[in-house]
What we know:
Elements: H1 8-19, H2 24-31, H3 35-52, H4 56-88
Helix pairs in contact: 1-2, 1-3, 2-3
Amino acid sequence: MARKKINETTRQKVIKAHANGQSMRKIAKEFGVGLASVHRIVKEKELQKGKKGGSKKEVNIERQKRIQALEKRIAELEKKITNLGVKKR
């Protein structure tokens, strides 16, 4: 049995709904397509996005920036916890 072709309008709606955080199951039900189709459409879009995106070096730089920000936040929280322990004694 051949699959029915999903038109471009539906594809764009699926991609938009996924970008807005809607679950894939809910998207599939809403647009009357299979869950596997939703997965495939989203995956294809992510692959296209990856090709257009930055190089590995740029991705690693962004990752390092996020790590540094998180490490800074952890240090701040550890300092607060230490200060709370001192105040209680």
